[in-house]
Amino acid sequence: MRWVLPDYIQDALPAEAEQLERLRRRLLDAFRSHGYQLVMPPLLEYLDSLTTGAGPDLKLRTFKLVDQLSGRTMGVRADMTPQVARIDAHLLNRAGVTRLCYCASVLHALPSSLTATREPLQLGAELYGHSGIDADIEIVRLLSEVMRLAEVPASRIDLGHVGIFRVLAARAGMVPEREETLFALLQAKDVPGLGELLAEVAEPVRSALLALPTLYGGAEVIEAARARLPQDAEIGAALDDLARLSEALADLPISFDLADLRGYHYHNGVVFAAYGSGSPAALALGGRYDGIGRAFGRSRPATGFSLDLRELALGLPAAPQAGAILAPAGGDAELAGVVANLRAVGEVVMTALPGHEGSWKEAGCDRQLIKRDGRWAVEALQGE
Questions:
Q1: pLDDT for residue 128 is more than 70
Q2: Residue 264: per-residue pLDDT
Q3: Does 280 lie in the same domain as 139?
Q4: pLDDT band at 53, cuts 50/70/90?
Q5: CB 171 within 8 A of CB 163
Q6: Shared domain check, 267 and 345
Q7: Which of 96, 135, 250, 355 gives 130 a disulfide partner, CB atoms 3.0 to 4.6 angstroms apart?
Q8: Residue 76 sits in a domain of what CATH number?
Q9: Is residue 366 located within the same domain as residue 261?
C-alpha cells in the first residue's frame, strides 16, 4: 500500500497545517520582537558536525547515510541546537551577545515516547555570549511568553542544575557506564534501584545521591538541598544560581526538581522543563550548555530552549475555518479587480474552474460572487 506512512510519521492535513503555520508565525514574530534572529540550518550535515558535543543519546536518534559525492557519513538532524551553535561559533563569529531562533523539522530514528512523532517540528531560541544568570532569566521568561502566546500557558517550570549531579557522580567515582545507569535511575526516581547501585559508594555522597529524587517542589527545596547535600563550593554555587532564578522569576510558576537532568550530556548548568495544564510530559526543555561551540573553533557560553510545535499545538482548540468566496471563471477586468480587492483585505477567493464535479462547500466555499444590477456582490453560496 503506497499511501501507508512509516510508523510515528504523519501528514498534517489542511486544518492542522494552517494552525501550525499560524502558530509558527506568531512565535517567530515574538522571538523577533525580543531580538532573536531567524536562522535556517540545512537538513543534512556530516555526522561529526551534526552530533558534536551532544552525547550518545542524540547519536542514537540520528538517521545516518553515506554522501554519494564525498563518501563521508552524513546525518539527518535530530536536534538543531548543535547546528545553531556551529552558526554562532564559526559563521557569525560575533564578539558579543548573539540571539538566534529557528523552526523546522527534525527526524528521530526512534520516537521519544509511545505517543511522540519521529518528525518533530522543532522551534527554539538560543542566547550566546553571556555566562551570567541574567541570560538564563531572559530565556526562561521568553519560554513562558511563548507558551502564553500559544494559548498553552506554563502550569509549572521545573528548574534543576546539572552541576550538582556532575559533582556527586565524580565524587562517587562513577565510570561512564555506571554514570549512565545512575542517570536513568534518577530520571525514573527509582530509589530502590539507586540504593543497589550505590551500595558501595562512601558517605556522604551516597546519601546525597539518594536524596536527589526527593528534592522536588517549591522554594523550600533549595534550603533542604543545602542541608542534605555535601558542603561543596560547586554545589553551593549551583544552589545559589537556582535561588537567584527563583527570586527573579517569582511571578512565574517556578518549582524545582534536582533529579530531572534531561539533556545532561551537553548541558552543564541550569536546566528546566516546562509543563502545560493537563500535560503529563514536558512541552519544552532547555538549559545552559556553555562551551558547545568549542569543536567549531570558538567556545561560547550559551543557554536556550526548544519544543515540538506539533506537540504544543495539540493543546490548542480547533481553529475556526474561514470560508472562501467562489468567483465565476472567465471573468473580465472588472471581475478580476473585484477579486484582487477581496484578496487584498484577507478574503480567500477561488475560481470556479469548468468541469468541477465535487461540492464547492466541500472545497471550503460558503459565499459566491454574483453580478446583480451591473455590480458584483458577495452572497451566500447557493446549492453545493
A1: yes
A2: 56
A3: yes
A4: low
A5: no
A6: no
A7: 135
A8: 3.30.930.10
A9: no
Q: How far, in Å, CA of 263 to CA of 285, rounded? A: 8
Burial class (CB in 10 A: 0-12, 13-18, 19+), 68: exposed
Q: Which domain holds residue 347?
A: 324-380
Pair 231, 360 in one domain: no
347 and 264 within one domain: no
Same-domain pairing of 278 and 357: no
Q: Is residue 288 located within the same domain as residue 336?
A: no
Residues 65, 213, single domain; the answer is yes
- C-alpha cell of 200? 558501595
Beta bridge partners of 324: 365
Domain count, the chain: 2
* Average pLDDT of the residues of the chain: 90
| Residue 131 grid coordinates | 555566562
The predicted pLDDT at position 267 comes to: 82
